[in-house]
Specification:
The structure is a homodimer of 331-residue chains.
Chain A lengths: L5 H10 L6 E5 L4 H7 L9 H15 L5 E4 L5 H6 L8 E5 L22 H6 L4 E7 L5 H21 L2 E7 L10 H20 L5 E4 L11 H14 L4 E4 L5 H13 L4 E4 L1 H4 L8 H26 L21 H4 L1
Parallel strand pairs in A: 1-2, 1-8, 2-3, 3-4, 4-5, 5-6, 6-7, 7-8
Helix pairs in contact in A: 3-11, 7-8, 9-11
Amino acid sequence: MRRLTIGKLRGLQQIADDRGVFAMCAMDHRGSLQRMINPDDPGSVGYETLAAYKEELCRALAPVSSAVLLDPAYGAARAIASGALPRDVGLLVSLEATGYSGESGARLTRLLPGWNAAKTRRMGASAAKLLLYYHPGLPDVAARQRELVQQIVEDCAQADILCLVEPVAYPISDEDRDPRTFARRKPDVVLQTARELTALGIDVLKAEFPADLRFEQDEGRLLGYCQALDEASQAPWVLLSAGVNYEDFARQVEIACRSGASGFLAGRAVWQEGMSLADGSARRRWLETVAADRMRHLRDIAAEYGRPWWKKWGDAPTELVQVGEDWYATY
Amino acid sequence: MRRLTIGKLRGLQQIADDRGVFAMCAMDHRGSLQRMINPDDPGSVGYETLAAYKEELCRALAPVSSAVLLDPAYGAARAIASGALPRDVGLLVSLEATGYSGESGARLTRLLPGWNAAKTRRMGASAAKLLLYYHPGLPDVAARQRELVQQIVEDCAQADILCLVEPVAYPISDEDRDPRTFARRKPDVVLQTARELTALGIDVLKAEFPADLRFEQDEGRLLGYCQALDEASQAPWVLLSAGVNYEDFARQVEIACRSGASGFLAGRAVWQEGMSLADGSARRRWLETVAADRMRHLRDIAAEYGRPWWKKWGDAPTELVQVGEDWYATY
């Protein structure tokens, strides 16, 4: 049985709701958010604009989330400094730099220089998150990515902060570039990825939906893929939204939660259309109404079907930690 | 104007209510709690009993508090591990060992071996607290105590965690041992202590009421003492209860909050009578009813009269922090 440390347990309590289910909103986007704000010239979207958009997102959506995910450069500190993040909403902070490096189509994650898990802990956040392009079909690249995960798992253990990892599959061959082929291969890729990464001791897996609703609609098969993903994952898992449209995402969340997921960490599916509204007050109104309603609805689905995170590891959260007389001295 | 760092600001948000006022419950007692549980043989009250009493206190009173103060040996980790501490209630953890050392009546604070501010941060707490016997009338001893405060202020800065200091005056002469004399000297002692310790850069002062209601009942003079204390303190301050009876403490909280205090951090005045109930279910019922009602009532007084913590330092909390483009790299 997995043993939890006190800092990680407190973190899980803070990012989940009272029942132990996650209803989290991601707003740590950088490059993709710049493209939404100004598709013609994303590079012209500077610090102040990005930071202001993120503050708006946080102010509108954090109050209807159990936790929010922000990046350290544009979002996390501003959310605290501005008061946009309520005192009782958990905070996750990303560790990676935006984009990736690599040759011949391989994608390698780089950490954001000047940022780390220890700083994430110091600022009062509850979890560190690592986005990871990952494909088990490229063994050498995958091995290097796993090394990075191992390093982050150790850094997080040192700071006793949660480590949430978000693997994202990508096309690694010309065949893969055909969406239908990529979709057919997706369940295997997502499951194998979950198997390989959760074996490294991460605390929460942020998983892709293991199918593509454009090509697979059969409810029984979709539930089967998600149940297989649940078996493949040694850690509690939440669903990411990856920019699918909101209706599809809501369906995915229900299927995933009925199959063992502990909730969701949703980004663009909740708020993407609003980012193209150039008028500030129209944009804020949209976030406070349409996007907030989406979060509430997703939260209700997760509350109804989601499995409390601790059930992955035991019958009760109290079983997972041991505190004895010398805890403080040996901690 | 005082500048706040992000970890400390998040901590203040977490231990205060939404308005920025503190309604906190102290349950970090060790020696004094053992004496309450078994007055005849306090030393026989062992780890399991103390830990279980603290868990009961936390379960009953944390839900009606903005934050709770626990000690690292018997309370803090257990409160998290057992689920007795709600996810949205702040946690303060004490740094000192119980009791004191010193010669010829002088009292020197010792830190709890094996515990420190960095561990307090790692476990997910929002503040570290140092209890300090202090009397400005013993300059050499006071200087050594201030050195300890300075060290803790630095440790807390390193971990970017709040530093709350609780000075407690004590009799330093035979004359002082006459309660009436001690009471007459108390306003000066409490004010001078506040002046000397808040100059060291602590974040929150946990202050004694600067008078003794047994010998001073005049409302105008009591308000005057508290206003002078408010002027003497460079940090936001909260009132401690020091085992006075509940009715007196409620009156003290109102007077202090009308004079600039930002709330209270109450221990024995809220729950002491319950600790002598040997029957577990009677004790828990008493805590859940009488003691919880007391916390609610004190919280209402603080909410009505208390000054938001940030008003000590500026017109709005957002003024107190600066977050720019390179924040994450220089943090």
